[in-house]
């Protein structure tokens, strides 16, 4: 199907005039250049825009990182304020009492101190103190507090000043009627006077406060910033439904884990720009994702306008091309009309083109060519006459008069011997032979008819010579459908008999076979006669016209006839070993049309 369409397109192209071809090529070339220019412009500008987007997003992530640093630095500072507070130091250093009232008063006093520190700090969600006696004090409004101090007492057991940040998790307390997602600072504190460990302070920051630091950063309509830990778990996100989900299997995460900066990735069938920045304090990675189409949308508008403008340019170029092509093809059309006159047989024409460019030079050479052609045609007519006379002489020379005389004498001899059946047979064969030779005067006959002529000739000789001669025919059926020139095989067979088998002692055999090999028709005539001496073999196909009376002229003339009708690439090949026999190979075309007058 594709080959058919391709052939139709090629045929259509070849049928176009030069005017249309020039216009078509110019239009295609200009369109291609404009499209390529638009593509390269789009890619270059997109690359620039993406580079700017990486730079801007990286700056925004740096800003987020700096804001986090301020928040967490302040959190550590407020934690230090709390653990150095005299009231907190005093209460946590006192032993626990059995008096509930005194314990309550201690709790209220501690809560007031913590509240005074926390109330002015909007980023602090809660502050909790755990003493060594597992008493818990909070900054107020908290309930259902889970004591997790043992984990950190053990963790800080060998540290004088232990401090640790905990990744985002659900709070170990309730505020109001719910628990929050918090990032917590845990710090061990000691007595300011004696250095004895007193307890543990927990300062928690609501994750929503962290997310608010980057919620208003604009990364396009669907751009997004979020924070993940080293395991790929989302620690902070403006979309709370994604909190604690994992991106570890996303294609960009391995890169973000070890790189900072920006890179393009294919996510869910869409190209996105991923920009990452590490935040070592909590082993976080801040990630910004922006769809590429949002970055390049303005560029797409520019490209569309560029292409529209390109279409206008192409139309204008087509108009100019038509005008230019017309000025070029006008003298070519004049040449075309003149050539058509020459084709019609009028050689008395003259091209009058005044331009001195390539077309003018072509017209000048054309005039010379027509003049030379006129002279050449006259010479060819004369040569054709000579060729026809030569071919007729060659054809006539193939029908050896001695063959006819000898055959007639054989008939007389058979008649004297009263061998009437053989007489009838040889006369019929002789008639059949000359019927084939005449072939209504046509020089081209079917391969089947040529084989019949050769076989008839051999049958006549078998009757004349009896058992001294034998032959076999071995032809592929496909061979019969092709055509050839008349009396092609008979002269070679005649040579094989009279110069090969006749001088041999005992019975001689001729084997004729034919087959089709690709684009060639190959026929082989092999005899087991006396063969040809090497020095003579080298001259048979190269003899001069002065040797035409040579007894091997049938081989030479047959080779020349093949080359004359079919071309120099075809002809005869002779191989012979003196004393053993000769093989003559015909190489013919499988096409029907022949040169000269053969059609």
TrEMBL record:
Recite the UniProt keywords alphabetically. Answer: Cell membrane, Kinase, Membrane, Phosphoprotein, Transferase, Transmembrane, Transmembrane helix
Record SUPFAM superfamilies:
ATPase domain of HSP90 chaperone/DNA topoisomerase II/histidine kinase, HAMP domain-like
Q: Reply yes or no: does the keyword Transferase apply.
A: yes
Q: Which InterPro entries match?
A: Bact_2-comp_sensor_kinase, dCache_1, HAMP_dom, HATPase_C_sf, HATPase_dom, Sig_transdc_His_kin_internal
Q: Would you say which domain of life the source belongs to?
A: Bacteria
**Record GO cellular component, one term:** plasma membrane
**Which Gene Ontology molecular function entries are recorded, alphabetically?**
phosphorelay sensor kinase activity
| PANTHER family documented for this protein | SENSOR HISTIDINE KINASE YPDA
Q: Could you tell me what this protein is called?
A: Histidine kinase
């Amino acid at each position: 199907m594709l080959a058919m369409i391709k052939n139709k397109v090629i045929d259509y192209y070849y049928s176009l005039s030069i005017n249309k071809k020039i216009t078509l090529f110019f239009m295609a070339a200009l369109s291609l250049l404009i499209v390529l220019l638009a593509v390269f412009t789009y890619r270059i500008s997109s690359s620039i825009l993406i580079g700017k987007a990486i730079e801007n997003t990286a700056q925004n992530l740096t800003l987020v990182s700096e804001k986090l640093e301020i928040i967490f630095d302040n959190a550590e500072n407020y934690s230090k304020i709390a653990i150095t507070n005299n009231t907190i130091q005093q209460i946590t250093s006192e032993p626990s009492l059995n008096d509930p009232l005194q314990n309550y008063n201690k709790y209220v006093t501690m809560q007031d101190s913590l509240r005074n520190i926390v109330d002015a700090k909007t980023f602090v969600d809660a502050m909790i103190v755990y003493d060594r006696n597992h008493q818990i004090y909070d900054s107020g409004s908290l309930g259902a507090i889970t004591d997790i101090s043992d984990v950190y007492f053990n963790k800080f057991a060998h540290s004088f000043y232990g401090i640790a940040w905990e990744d985002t998790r659900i709070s170990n307390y309730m505020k109001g009627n719910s628990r929050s997602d918090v990032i917590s600072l845990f710090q061990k504190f000691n007595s300011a006077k004696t250095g004895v460990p007193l307890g543990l302070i927990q300062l928690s920051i609501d994750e929503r406060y962290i997310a608010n630091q980057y919620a208003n950063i604009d990364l396009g309509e669907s751009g997004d910033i979020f924070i993940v830990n080293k395991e790929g778990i989302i620690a902070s996100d403006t979309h709370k439904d994604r909190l604690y989900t994992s991106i570890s299997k996303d294609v960009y995460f391995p890169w973000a884990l070890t790189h900072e900066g920006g890179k393009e990735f294919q996510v869910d069938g869409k190209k996105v720009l991923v920009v990452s920045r590490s935040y070592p304090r909590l082993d976080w990675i801040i990630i910004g994702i922006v769809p590429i189409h949002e970055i390049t949308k303005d560029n797409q508008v520019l490209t569309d306008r560029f292409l529209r403008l390109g279409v206008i340019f192409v139309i204008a170029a087509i108009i100019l091309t038509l005008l230019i092509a017309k000025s070029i093809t006008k003298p070519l059309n004049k040449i075309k009309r003149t050539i058509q006159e020459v084709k019609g047989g009028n050689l008395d024409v003259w091209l009058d083109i005044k331009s001195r460019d390539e077309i003018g030079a072509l017209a000048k050479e054309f005039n010379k060519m027509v003049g030379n052609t006129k002279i050449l045609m006259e010479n060819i007519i004369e040569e054709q006459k000579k060729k026809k006379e030569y071919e007729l002489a060659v054809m006539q020379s193939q029908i050896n008069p001695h063959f006819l005389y000898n055959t007639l004498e054989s008939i007389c001899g058979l008649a004297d011997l009263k061998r009437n059946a053989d007489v009838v047979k040889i006369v019929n064969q002789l008639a059949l032979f000359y019927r084939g030779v005449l072939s209504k005067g046509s020089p081209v006959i079917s391969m089947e008819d040529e084989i019949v002529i050769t076989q008839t000739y051999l049958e006549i000789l078998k009757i004349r010579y009896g058992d001294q001669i034998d032959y076999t025919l071995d032809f592929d059926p496909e061979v019969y459908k092709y055509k050839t020139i008349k009396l092609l095989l008979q002269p070679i067979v005649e040579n094989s008999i009279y110069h090969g088998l006749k001088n041999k002692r005992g019975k001689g055999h001729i084997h004729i076979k034919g087959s089709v090999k690709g684009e060639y028709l190959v026929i082989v005539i092999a005899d087991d006669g006396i063969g040809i001496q090497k020095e003579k073999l080298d001259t048979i196909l190269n003899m001069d016209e002065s040797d035409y009376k040579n007894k091997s002229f049938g081989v030479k003339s047959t080779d020349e006839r093949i080359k004359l009708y079919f071309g120099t690439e075809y002809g005869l090949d002779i191989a012979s070993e003196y004393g053993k026999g000769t093989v003559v190979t015909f190489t013919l075309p499988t096409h029907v049309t022949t040169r000269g007058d053969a059609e």
